[in-house]
Amino acid sequence: MYITKIHLKNWKNFRQAEIPLQEYTYLLGANASGKSNLLDVFRFLHDITMPQGGGLQKAIADRGGITKLRCLHARRDPEVRIEVDLADSFEAERPEWQYKLAFKPEGKGAQRILIVEETVIHHGKKLFERPTKEDRADPLRLTQTYLEQIQTNADFRAIAAFFSGITYLHLVPQLLKYSDRIGGNFLEGDPFGQAFLKSLARTTEKTRDSRLKKIETALALAVPQFEALQFEPDAMGHPHLQARYKHYRPNAGLQREDQFSDGTLRLIGMLWSLLESNTMLLLEEPELSLHAAIVACIPEMMQRVRLKSKHRRQVVLTTHSAALLENKGIDGRGVIVLEPGTDGTTTRQLTHNEVSAVKSGLSLAEVVLPKTRPEKVAQLAFL
After folding, report:
1. Is the Cα torsion angle 189, 190, 196, 198 positive or negative in sign?
2. Is the separation of the CB atoms in 161 and 182 below 8 Å?
3. 227 and 373 inside one domain
4. Which domain holds residue 150?
5. What is the largest CA-CA distance in the chain?
């Protein structure tokens, strides 16, 4: 299943946005244009469906409350709305599933956040629409979505399962290298990869070895002198990755993950995540710490991993990288440009002229990236 379209109202930077998605969607925009905030709407849907400690109210509270989540440009209309289309194919004429969720402050007393609408449509047939008669009789029911309740989501659990599998990855190598010194405090969902090694340890040996073999093949092409990658718990049972490099000493010792380069760790994390599941993967600036020549190959790597894996993950990524966008294999239909303005950020696909320029041989880095450049950025040199 894939998310083929998302509609937002009053979500952070966006007063209104209707965004079509592809199997690989590239979000381009200036700093503070809302790329991370757009990724966060998918994390929000994931957080609602978390089996332990999740739910609508916690997802809102974790983001600083409704005032931090709602668009600052929403002066009169306090409603936040998210509508999602899901289908088994991007070529489908209409979505298989549609999920709509809208909520706002109660407006009196305790200022509870109440659901204004929650609707599920399956193959054009409406399964339910809230508020129901029971909701109006007991407004406290409107503090929870049906999506998060096992006893109410049986007929559309496929949506809940998809949302709960959404993964966000912005691996911070230092958190992985020095996790034993930093301590055992982990953010829910482990967005920065601190518990990455524990995730490997929880994977069955056969699956883990198969994935690491595929990653090993990629590293041999990307990392000089690299030969082999293996998973090896230490004497205390703590999980570790070990790498062997070509060396003038045939029996030179293996290197552990705390000796890996930042780029190697980020590449391992990205490749593992691509192999891990068949739901959505959110990648924040995957180019960080990587050589431009490797970054330029990221689109092909994602395609190759898809062909070698039984999973077909939908990927939404943010990037500022010219090297990545110089890749001629990127499908322009999957490019979304974010344009900040005085009334919030708007989103758009490539224009007709931009499509024509790309078809004539120019890269997305040449056609689109200059349009995300801040107007006054040149003045930074004169500070």
Report:
1. negative
2. no
3. no
4. 1-23+35-165+327-383
5. 78
Q: How far apart are CA 133 and CA 126, in angstroms?
A: 17
- Do residues 184 and 196 share a domain? yes
**Global confidence as pTM:** 0.90
Residues 331 and 229 in one domain: no
Instruction: Tell me, yes or no, whether 28 lies in a domain.
Output: no
pLDDT tens-digit readout, 235-291: 777 888 888 887 756 666 678 888 888 888 888 888 888 888 788 999 999 998 888
Which pLDDT does position 8 carry in this prediction? Answer: 96
Confidence of residue 119 (pLDDT cuts 50, 70, 90): very high
Q: Is the pLDDT of residue 181 over 70?
A: no
Confidence of residue 230 (pLDDT cuts 50, 70, 90): confident
352-359 own/partner pairs: CB under 8 Å, 24+ apart: 358/332
In order, the DSSP letters of 245-277 are E--SSTTPPPEEGGGS-HHHHHHHHHHHHHHH-
Same domain as 142, residue 155: yes
- 292 and 251 co-located in one domain: yes
Q: Are strands 113-122 and 125-130 parallel, antiparallel or unpaired?
A: antiparallel
The rounded percent of the chain whose pLDDT value lies above 70 is 91
Calpha distance 29→320 (Å, rounded):
8
Q: Specify whether 100 is located in the same domain as 68.
A: yes
In this structure, the chain runs to a length of 383
Residues 188 and 271 in one domain: yes
Does some domain include residue 360? yes
Say how many domains are in the chain: 2
